[in-house]
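Retro notes
What went well: the complex prediction finally ran end to end.
Inputs used:
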Amino acid sequence: MDKYELRAIVLSGGLLSVFFFAVLYNSYSRKIDMPTCIPFDKTFEESKVKEIDKGLYEIYLVARMWTFDPEEIEIPAGSTVDFYLTSIDVVHGFHINEKGVNMMAVPGSINKITTRFEQPGIYRFVCNEFCGTGHQNMAGTIIVK
Amino acid sequence: MTISRPLKTTLLLGLTMPMSLFILGVYNGVMQTLYRAGVLQQHDVAGINYYQGLTMHGVINAIVLTTFFAVIFGHYTIVHYLRKEPPKWSYITSIVFMITGSVIALVVMVLGKASVLYTFYAPLQAAPLFYIGTAMLIIGSWIAFAGWVPLWFEWKRENPLSKMPIAILGTFVNFTMWFMASIPVIYELLALLTPWAMGIREKINVPETRTLFWMFGHPLVYFWILPAYIGYYTMLPKIAGGKLYSGNAARLAFLLFLILSTPVGVHHQFSEGGISPSIKLWVSILTFGVSLPSFMTAFTVGASLEYAGKKRGAKGVFQWMARLPWFRKDNYLFGYFICGLILFIFGGLSGIVNGSYTLNQLVHNTGWVPGHFHLTVAGPSILFILGLTLYMFNHVSGKPLKHRATATIIPYLWTIGVAMLAHGLMAGGLMGEPRRTNMGLTYTNPESHLFNSAWVPSSTMTMLGGIIMGTAALLYFVIFFRMAFSRPTTTPKIEMIESEELHIEKPIPLLLNMRPWIILAIILVASTYYPSFKEVFKYSKPVDNRFDMENPANLNRNNE
């Protein structure tokens, strides 16, 4: 093969490796998680907000056409939250843009992610997967005090 | 080469029918941008609901038009290079299946019985005929491929010393990959969704259907783009007045697509549970791998264009760019190629962001995603389809192409539109704007309590881009249908633009034989999807849900 062609291939491969290690480095150094697997269990289909320890919350979030349950959540600043998410009807999404939390709510399956709310404020979340004619109404807020 | 009557009819039908549907696809695309920007603050216009229109936009533009084009372009390429026509049974059965399937799906969508978007995620349910129609369209494309395979073996026997032409390799790679990747979706459509929608099957495992869909849904995007790659390698160098820089690089790029296209679909499922982070990391690596052939294409095609510019007397590092045949109406195809390439630089880079493991969570299901894929499918894929449809129709029908100046301008206008649309969607996406959402009713409606002023400028930019794209498409429809309705003036023929290679390269045996690559592809698919399905079945359970878009009540429970 042509030598410039080979150089281009090696350079592109190098560039991709740089991108990839940048992603890995940031994921691990800042402890950014991927949504994780939890075996399905009916208990997750009932919503709840539970303080399991000081500043440590478990929130079971249930998505359904066309609301989140709970729709408004209040937690103190500095809390770490484990979100457990499922849907009881069709596929929904759950996106808190400011926190980079972005998960699918899939019926028959549980999704989990952990995030920490340092700054007080109002964090809006929206459903970002099409779920029927009322999809554009499906949103909620997390109030961090 | 001259062409038999039935093949000619098949080709012309296969070009005209999806182009007519594309009118509806484009209309619904432009309308969406108006809803999203808050210019329209309502559920429907002219009896078409936002989500129904979105379904039509996706199904027509991304599945019907692209599949028809890949098949017709395949027939054209095969006949030109192998100098033989495929067996009549194959192309006739194929086109009958594809047209019937598309018409069925279209009718069901127009009736509003299938507003499930082109990803048809269960448990939103469409009428069974929608799933059957879509399956027929895909199976029709397999039948066309079945007709090409014997032609190739015959040609190889007659020309034992010749290499497989690059365009033929590209076509065969594309359809082999397509066949492998569409088996799961056919299984999903016919074995799971159709019986479920008919009520024969009560429960459905949603993560299973999603995984089957994306096993098809990502290779689908390569199926859209590979015809354009064939054009970039085998036609563009000649159109630009140069030669292909390296034939071996072209072959390697296609073969890399063959092995890496199918196992990367899980990257569409990064943000769902049911599949563990380790599989997601593995798929991220594969996704980075599949961008390598695109980087190679950028280099090889760039080098070929540089050669073309220098042949015209360009000097220095950059002058060749100015010496390319821009805006020349005797060479209208150049714009369709080069504009697609320019858009694809951004389309490819934004795609790497999507595939980047944790980074994906910043953009998943936001406007960023349609921003990205409009730079690919509405960039190189559609521009190639538009340009080559004019070119092939002109040759196969013998009808003259008038308004060449307009035909020359269209791709540039379209590109300005796509750039603005994609910029609006991606900027909005980074601010959290959700995709697939009738934002005019809430998020961009100042009267709603959900109003978000940050999303108004971005969605307005999207709308302006959409209107420019719509204008370019309108001009295109005028010149295409003007040609379609005129009288033939020349003899119908099949003739393709063929680039020469710049160097005589030493043949590399591994690049001339598809077999080891097919085996490697199967191994990679198995190594990704065996653990994925194992986890899907371990972590999730089937549900007896069944829903209509309009109604939050479970249809399964209504009957009780």
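What we learned: Chain B has one domain: 5-558.
What to try next: split runs per interface for comparison.
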